[in-house]
Amino acid sequence: MISCCSLLMKVSIHGICSYSAQYIKIILNLNDDEIEADELIARGNWAQAVDALVRIDNPNIRVLNKQGCLLRERLQDLPGALECHQQALIKATDEDKAETLIYLGIV
After folding, report:
1. Tally of domains within the chain
2. Which of 19, 34, 35, 69 is the most buried (most CB within 10 A)?
3. Residues 79-95: pLDDT tens digits?
4. Distance (Å, whole) CA 94 – CA 72
5. Cα 5 to chain center, whole Å?
6. What is the pTM of this model?
7. What does the angle CA 26 – CA 67 – CA 99 come to, to the nearest 5 degrees?
8. Among the listed residues 12, 37, 15, the one whose alpha carbon sits nearest the alpha carbon of residue 25
9. What whole-number distance in Å separates Cα of residue 101 and Cα of residue 14?
10. What distance in Å separates the CA atoms of residue 70 and residue 95, rounded to the nearest whole number?
11. What distance in Å separates the CA atoms of residue 39 and residue 12, rounded to the nearest whole number?
């Protein structure tokens, strides 16, 4: 199964249609720093990916949980991961709380 972020990278990288890439960006509420982070994650550049995510002003729940997972799984920064997931929980709607609580439980 291909993730939405992977799909966006494939569309952007292969230049299939810049309009399609723009449309996907809008639907998923992606910004350039998150796209850069996803590309860095694909290359295994964990710390640089976190740096890209940190640059995002007013990060959404997806970004905060992504950053928290990177900090926990790849950089072994449990306090940083906990902070990210706690911020995500504060922003979470009922639909998003379950996933964020799972991440908090893992930390």
Report:
1. 2
2. 34
3. 999 999 999 999 998 88
4. 24
5. 9
6. 0.75
7. 80
8. 12
9. 37
10. 22
11. 11
